[in-house]
Amino acid sequence: xxxxxxxLLTALLCPACTGGCGGRxxxxxxxxxxxxxxxPAKPAPxxxxxxxxxxLPLPGGTTLVARLDGPGAPPPLRLSLRGPDGGVRDxxxxxxxxxxxxxxxxxxxxxxxxxxxxxxxxxGPAVRLGLIATRGEDDYEAAEQVVLLRLPELSPLWRGDGDxxxxxxxxxxxxxxxxxxxxxxxxxxxxxxxxxxxxxxxxENSQTPDFRALKQACKAPxxxxxxxxxxx
Length: 232
Hints:
The chain is mainly β. The protein is built from 3 helices and 11 strands, in the order H-E-E-E-E-E-E-E-E-E-E-H-H-E. Helices cover 10% and strands 44% of the residues. The strands form 2 sheets. The protein has a 7-stranded antiparallel sheet with strand order 5-6-7-8-9-10-11, with no helix packed on it. A 4-stranded antiparallel sheet has the order 1-2-3-4, with no helix packed on it.
């Protein structure tokens, strides 16, 4: 084979080289700039658990039923009356009782919702509807917002803050319990502070400076009482 033919064959077998395999590497084509991949999307927070029901027997054999059903802050409410014969009459949602309680700063981060019903006496028989939002574990908080309803028509009397509880590291629980009662033509709102300390089962944990400081600071909030005008 002639020298010219050998050089031609070598160039064909080494396309990445210029001037044959003994030459300089061919310059790569200009690479287009590539943008860094976008960060993965953050998962949407799971909706707070808002599937809860409470019942309260009323005079005459009727039962008031309150149900939370669906996401929201506050979650949708459904009230109904169940008669002695088992028949159910729908009362309606928040709009039927003058609207939901006022918003609370815990609501945007609520992880669970509960509803409670209890009987109270406020210038006549009434119902306390408590909407309770909770969040956290080591730093746990629960806050109740209240709607007071006059019986038997379930008309709104008052709405505002109810009980409050916080727990730090499963050791210190503190807050206040709110009681309602009539005073003249107004509403007496009394908040009783409380504090509870739970010792650690692990001795070494209970003796650390952080836990000793937490125990020293575990004090009940001050009591308070006031009289407010009822919604008419």
